[in-house]
Design a protein that fits this description.
7-stranded mixed sheet; 12 helices; 12% strand; 7 strands
C-alpha cells in the first residue's frame, strides 16, 4: 500500500520532468541488477558509474541489463563514491536532467522511495534532499548498534561543521539535487571518498542551499558495507573541525559581519582569558600552598560565565540562520549558456 501511494505521488509530481539516477558501482554485482529493476518509469536516465571496479561491474551490467535507460560510465582509476557520484551528476546535468537522484548499488536504498526525495525539489521547497534513517525509532533497531552510535556522533559533528542544524544522518547516501545547484558546486574541492556526503553539505551551505531530510527505513540485508565507522571517526572529526573553521570564517567574517560575529569574538576572548588567568593562578596557589585571593577567583569565573553566554547567543543565531529559501529557481544553469544569454538580454 505504501509503495503504491508513493508511486501515485511520483506520477503527479514528476510528470513532464526529466529525472535521472546515478548509481556508483563498486563491488555491487550481487545487488545492482535488482536496484536497476526497481527504478520506476518516472526516471528517464540511469547512470551506472563503474568506479574501476575489480569485479567489472560495468561489463556485468551491460551483459545482463536490457533497460534502455541505462548508461554505463567507466573510471580508469578508482575515485571513491564521491568521485563516481560527481561524474554521474555532471553527465546527467549535461544531458538535460532537472533533478538528479543518487542511490547506492548495494540494495540498501529502495528506488521506490524516489518520489519522496524528488517532490520537495519540484515543489520549490528544497534544493537538496537526503535520507534520514533515524526518523522512526522503531525502524532503526535493524541498524547494527556500532553503526547506530557512530552515526549519532557523526551527526552532531556534521550539524556544527555544515551549519544545517535541523538535519540528521549525514552519511546517508540516498540524495536528490536540483540540476541548477549541481552547476554551482565546486566539484574539484569536494571530498571524493567516504566524507563526500558530509562535505557536499558544507559546500551547499556556502551557497545557502536549502537541505531537508526525507524519512526512510533502515534496510540491511546480506550486503557488506565498506564504511567502518570506527576507522573513520577520527578522520571525520578532523575534517569536521576544518570545515567548521572555514564555514565560520566565510559566513561570519568574509561574506558578512553581524552581531553574531562580535558575539563569537567576545566569547573566545572571555573564555580564553578566563581559563588562562584562572588556570595560572590555580597552579600558583597549588604550588605555594597559599589560598588565592577572592578577586583572582571571581574575575576568571565572571569571564568564563560571560564567555559561555556569548557563545550560547552565537549558537542561537547560527541555528536560526539555517537556509530556508531555495536558491535553484534563481540560478541560471551554467551548462546552458544560451539560457544565460537570453535572461541577461531580457529588459
Amino acid at each position: 500500500m505504501r509503495t503504491q501511494t508513493i508511486k501515485s505521488i511520483g506520477a503527479r509530481m514528476i510528470e513532464s520532468q526529466r529525472i535521472a539516477i546515478v548509481i556508483p558501482c563498486y563491488k555491487v554485482r550481487r545487488h545492482v541488477l535488482d536496484v536497476i529493476a526497481a527504478v520506476g518509469s518516472e526516471v528517464s536516465a540511469i547512470y551506472c558509474v563503474d568506479d574501476a571496479c575489480p569485479d567489472k561491474s560495468g561489463d556485468f551490467i551491460e551483459e545482463n541489463c536490457r533497460d534502455a535507460r541505462v548508461r554505463v560510465i567507466r573510471h580508469q582509476v578508482n575515485q571513491g563514491v564521491g568521485g563516481a557520484t560527481l561524474t554521474g551528476y555532471q553527465l546527467a546535468v549535461s544531458d538535460g536532467a532537472a533533478v538528479v537522484v543518487k542511490v547506492d548499488g548495494d540494495g540498501q536504498m529502495d528506488p521506490a522511495l524516489l518520489p519522496l526525495f524528488v517532490a520537495p525539489i519540484l515543489r520549490g521547497e528544497a534544493d537538496y534532499c537526503k535520507g534520514n534513517r533515524f526518523w522512526d525509532m522503531g525502524e532503526i533497531r535493524q541498524m547494527p548498534w556500532l553503526r547506530r552510535v557512530g552515526n549519532l556522533a557523526l551527526s552532531f559533528m556534521a550539524k556544527a561543521s555544515t551549519g544545517y542544524w535541523d538535519i540528521f544522518d549525514p552519511t546517508n547516501g540516498y540524495t536528490a539535487i536540483h540540476a541548477n545547484v549541481v552547476t554551482k558546486l565546486p566539484v574539484d574541492s569536494i571530498s571524493k571518498r567516504y566524507f563526500f556526503e558530509t562535505d557536499i553539505l558544507f559546500r551547499l551551505n556556502t551557497i545557502r542551499a536549502v537541505v531537508i531530510d526525507v524519512p526512510m527505513d533502515a534496510k540491511y540485508g546480506d550486503e557488506v558495507s565498506s564504511l567502518k565507522i570506527s576507522s573513520v571517526l577520527g578522520e571525520f572529526a578532523l575534517k569536521h573541525a576544518r570545515n567548521f573553521g572555514k564555514r565560520i570564517l566565510y559566513r561570519y567574517y568574509l561574506r558578512d559581519l553581524s552581531i553574531a560575529s562580535l558575539e563569537l569574538l567576545a566569547s573566545v576572548a572571555l573564555l580564553g582569558a578566563g581559563l588562562i588567568y584562572g588556570g595560572v593562578h590555580w597552579w600558583m596557589a597549588q604550588s605555594t600552598g597559599q589560598p588565592a585571593a577572592v578577586g583572582t577567583v571571581v574575575l576568571p569565573a565572571l569571564a568564563i560565565i560571560s564567555g559561555l553566554q556569548f557563545l550560547l547567543a552565537f549558537l542561537g543565531y547560527d541555528i536560526a540562520s539555517v537556509p530556508r529559501r531555495p536558491i535553484h529557481p534563481s540560478l541560471i544553469p551554467t551548462h546552458r549558456p544560451e539560457l544565460a544569454a537570453s535572461v541577461s538580454a531580457t529588459p
